[in-house]
Amino acid sequence: MMFTKSYARIIFLLLIALIVLLSPTFIRSSKTYIGEDSYFYSRLSEKINAGDYSYDELSYSGRYFTYSLAQPLIFLFFSRLFPEYLIINIIPVIFAMLSLFLFYKILKEFYIEPNVIYFSLISLIVSPPFIYVFSSYNFLCYWHYIFLLKRIAS
């Protein structure tokens, strides 16, 4: 496969996305997480790992465990492979890259000209909702990817 102008553009877009999404992590001087969801899913995955997920004493002065188990279980799966700090910062970026790829494939499917596709991808990368969703570990980064995957599958 030859290295063409379109491959150079895709590599350039991926580099821009990496810089934009990882910059909030590198700008912070402390090793704290971004957002409250990161702490919440970390705590829930510890409770699930301990087998004590019937009652959550820290949420609203205590209540029964009625949360979705998808995000804590995904966090628990990756925590057995990687350190927690790496999961909190890298997993959303991986889902962002996959979402960008799926968005690119969807636009290619509609036969949109390449310049418009690249401009759309750059607009998506620098948009505040995209940065918010994929710069911290939250439930939106999974659902965004799943919705795009659903569009490709249909």
Provide a descriptive summary of the structure in words:
With 154 residues, this protein is mainly alpha-helical. It has one domain (5-153). The protein has seven helices and two strands. The protein has helices at 5-27, 36-50, 70-79, 84-109, 114-125, 128-134, 139-153, and strands at residues 55-56, 63-64. It has a two-stranded antiparallel ribbon with strand order 1-2. Helix 1 runs antiparallel to helix 4 and helix 4 runs parallel beside helix 7 (139-153). The longest helix has 26 residues, at 84-109. It is elongated, with a radius of gyration of 18 Å. The mean pLDDT is 82.
Q: Order of strands in the sheet with the most strands?
A: 1-2
The main sheet comes to:
2 strands, antiparallel
Q: Which geometry do the CA atoms define?
A: elongated
Radius of gyration: 18 Å
SS content category: mainly alpha
**Proportion of residues in extended strands:** under 5%
Low-confidence spans? none
SSE pattern? HHEEHHHHH
The number of helical runs is 7
Helix percent reads over 70%
**Separation, N- and C-terminal Cα atoms:** 29 Å
Number of domains: 1
Strand segment tally: 2
Mean of residue pLDDT? 82
Keywords:
154 residues, 2 strands, mainly alpha, elongated
Would you spell out the secondary-structure blueprint of this structure?
Blueprint: H1 5-27, H2 36-50, E1 55-56, E2 63-64, H3 70-79, H4 84-109, H5 114-125, H6 128-134, H7 139-153
Antiparallel strand pairs: 1-2
Helix pairs in contact: 1-4, 1-5, 2-3, 4-5, 4-7
Summarize the structure.
With 154 residues, the chain is mainly alpha-helical. Helix content is 70%, strand content 3%.
